[in-house]
Amino acid sequence: MSTPEAPHMQAGCLGGIFKTRFRRSSNLKGHNTPLVTSDNPAPSALRRDELAHRSSASPGPSGVSGEHKPNIYYGTCCDFSGKDYTTNWPIWEDPPPYSNTGSSGIFRAEVMRTIEYVLDQLDPTLRKLSLQIHDNPEIMFQEKFAHDTLSQFMESHGFSVTRHYLGMDTAWRAEFAHGKGGRVLGVNSEMDALPMIGHACGHNLIAISGVGVAIAVKAALETHNVPGKVVLLGTPAEEGGGGKVILLERGGYTDMDVCVMCHPAPGIAHSAGISTSLAMQAMEVEFFGQSAHAAAAPWEGTNALDAAFLAYSSIAVLRQQIKPDHRVHGVIKGHNGAANVIPDYAKMRWYVRAPTREQLFSLRDRVQACFKAAAMATSCRANIEFGLPYLELRQNSVLGAEFIRTANNHCGIVSEVWEFASAASTDFGNVTYELPSIHPIFAIPTQPHGGNHSPAFAESARSTEAHKACMAISKGLALTGFRVINDDDFFRKVRDAFELSKTDKTH
Ligand SMILES: [Zn+2]
Ligand SMILES: [Zn+2]
């Protein structure tokens, strides 16, 4: 097993996206994006700062020294405290019939019929899979049941499966190719749960969505004789450890032309959305001093707690000079001491967030300067560690528009592209830097104060309504993915949008 050094902090997901103010984006003009209006407002227009994430109380990395040395650990990214969305979840209505494709239509309605048929046939089986995974929650890098169950399932559906993919015990890859050549659609299935509260982020739904999309696209390739390949990755440790970052670094996404996945969250009934997220990096600093009798010989001591105090104060001052959409938050750890002993050790954990990678690194450097200054002022030694950053989501605008058009016209989903950034973060953000990708959020019914990362959300993630929402969005993702394989002109536009996004520093 070459599982990376165990991460100890929870990272996050995109669930908080639905708690943010809904705003219509101008990025996709001309596409059908009806949803929230003054007549049909979002349940509440919450402030971005209400999305500030909770800090994890779990321990940080160990055994790594040296400034800027990459280490694998991540900060908590989500505040999923939940709001009042349950009041706006009506009884599920059937999606519109196939013939009702709206004025804008969809790509190849006959392919959509294939996708619909396959996923409807699979529905009870996927429901069972979802509940099995939900009933066997496994935290980061321990998704053995999910790994074995899902890889076996994909094998039984005609996929070529690689277990323990790229040296990760619980990663897996399932692929199917039809004909010769053609493009490659990538899909992701997350599997991990949260400590103590199980599948409180709904990754059981993400798992079966990936499975469903891959099998539906396989059927579409075969039925309509389109050459191409679909690759489904079982991606461990989204909540802590950045499984996708590791897979990315080891070449797990190299042969994909695009990659798609989805994530559940509270929100307006039968809705989905696409937006970016905050880039995030965890930092940890240890201050080493010298103990001494605090009264008899304080001059013989070097006070590590003073260093932490100065670092905290410096960052508190810094925070007033950063932009409103940047975040720095942290805690002092250390060990229990006596008031009459000069503390020789203190440990701090910080999370730095910003809308873009560049802004993140800039802010990170300013925070690091506070650590160094504190060490210098107190004559302590500082050891600073950096986690691998979660980059912000760079949702592909062409894929996003296609998904929205498909979902709105055919999947019983109303969708929007949002121009704001969710305060959450995800390891899929790093994937979106490397290849065209989309990561829609879809709404499931939740209880008040029962958003992602709450025990109530775990219950929501196993509800019948959540399953139906998952299946609906999977149909939209499958057809969007199929079009990438089947439509040269569409794929060219996807690539063009991807190349253009690299120059967009505001993204
Ligand atoms: Zn999640
Ligand atoms: Zn989560």
TrEMBL record:
Instruction: Tell me which domain of life the UniProt entry assigns to the organism this sequence originates from.
Output: Eukaryota
One Pfam family matching this protein: Peptidase_M20
Instruction: List, alphabetically, the CDD domains matched.
Output: M20_ACY1L2-like
> Which Gene Ontology molecular-function terms are recorded?
dipeptidase activity
Q: Span of the secretion signal?
A: none
- State which residue ranges cross the membrane: none
**NCBIfam families tied to this protein:** amidohydrolases (TIGR01891)
Identify its protein family.
Answer: Belongs to the peptidase M20A family.
Put simply, this protein is called: Peptidase M20 dimerisation domain-containing protein
Q: Which organism is it from?
A: Serpula lacrymans var. lacrymans (strain S7.3) (Dry rot fungus)
